[in-house]
Design goal:
Blueprint (H helix, E strand, L loop, with lengths): L4 H26 L3 H5 L15 H13 L5 H9 L3 H7 L14 H28 L16 E8 L12 E7 L5 E7 L6 H14 L6 E4 L6 H10 L3 E6 L4 H8 L10 E7 L2 E11 L2 H6 L3 E16 L7 E5 L3 E2 L7 E2 L12 E3 L2
């Protein structure tokens, strides 16, 4: 049964939005050879009656986006009016007279709607992952090294809304440093990120082996099942943030004897009328913490001290300094808790290994 035109256009717009978000990265990773990028994308259409290859249609759509087109109507018009040089570079088909033929706007809509946003995201992610993969991590490690890391986070797609009026959310996996998005999954509201975490990593692992990598995520994903999947199934490491959504774990970490742990790293910054000092303390995970959370190997405490300059109103010269209580945030090559500022005890964090 053919898809109704409004629904097909909506699906095509979603796929185009995904393609637009990846266009610049795909062009850079392919060295400008977009045909190579899309050559391996499986065609969702029936083989009978295909006149324009999937790769050529996607190349032309990407070129339209890179030329400044954003809406589906603008992209289809640009593709249909593309000059012969662009059509030749995209691998467009020729008619019986040897003349290059541009895809009709309806063809572009049908291709994008059949492929879908998830199909575009998966194929683009696989292509970018093949270019970005640093290679396998060998075991055992000879000594301390900086392992490649993947960040998992969910974001709202601003400016987009479905037929129900709700803003779509994407759960994405991106490489640290370059920020290259390697995999994505469409989710519902933010509360539905957790069930998509493991499927996202398993899908990514199919074309981007995660063994030896460090997976980082925010406090919403500090879940025992996630730790077991990462370490036990994917043979990777994790760096999770701990907040008050896991109160028992937070209390155990906060109660550790941080006063006896030396500061391993400290930074200071000045600007905008304030001075900030951040410190990091790290220790091996005690046995009771390791029993509570699977594969925990290390805990870390990160504290921030802020001193602000307050100017006196209508008074004579001078200013006063005020020191704020330490605020808690966490991050570490393992596992990190964060909670609202308290002046009595430091904050903590944890690290892992397979």
């Amino acid at each position: 049964m053919p898809v109704p035109v409004p629904a097909a256009e909506a699906l095509a717009q979603e796929a185009l939005g995904e393609l637009a978000a990846r266009a610049a990265a795909l062009r850079a990773a392919s060295g400008g050879n977009l045909a190579e990028c899309f050559a391996a994308v499986p065609d969702p259409r029936r083989r009978r009656g295909i006149r324009h290859s999937l790769a050529s249609v996607l190349v032309l759509c990407t070129a339209a986006v890179l030329s400044g087109c954003t809406g589906l109507e603008d992209v289809t018009a640009w593709v249909h009016a593309a000059p012969s040089g662009v059509l030749a570079a995209a691998g467009a088909r020729k008619n019986a007279l040897g003349i290059l033929i541009a895809p009709h706007p309806d063809t572009v809509v049908r291709v994008l709607s059949a492929l879908g946003a998830h199909g575009v995201a998966r194929q683009a992610g696989a292509f970018l992952a093949a270019r970005a993969h640093p290679g396998p991590v060998t075991f055992p490690l000879a000594g301390p090294v900086q392992l490649p890391a993947i960040a998992v986070d969910g974001k709202a797609v601003r400016g987009a809304a479905g037929e129900d009026g709700l803003i779509p959310y994407l759960l994405a996996a991106a490489s640290h440093g370059t920020g290259t998005v390697l995999a994505e999954r469409l989710t519902g509201p933010k509360t539905n990120e957790v069930p998509e975490f493991a499927p996202l990593l398993r899908e990514l692992d199919e074309y981007f082996p995660l063994a030896g990598h460090v997976i980082t995520a925010d406090a919403g994903h500090t879940v025992k099942a996630h730790a077991r999947v990462i370490c036990g199934e994917l043979l990777a490491h994790y760096a999770f943030t701990v907040k008050l959504n896991t109160p028992a774990l937070w209390d155990e970490l906060d109660a550790l004897d941080w006063a006896s742990v030396p500061v391993q790293h400290a930074t200071e910054e000045k600007g905008h009328g304030r001075r900030e000092r951040r410190t990091i303390q790290v220790m091996d995970a005690p046995a009771h913490v390791a029993r509570r959370f699977p594969h925990a190997r290390q805990v870390a405490l990160i504290e921030r001290y802020v001193t602000r300059t307050v100017r006196v109103r209508k008074a004579s010269a001078g200013s006063a300094g005020r020191r704020s209580p330490p605020s808690r945030s966490s991050s570490s090559p393992a596992w990190t808790p964060a909670r609202p500022p308290r002046s009595t005890s430091p904050a903590t964090s944890v690290a892992t290994g397979p």
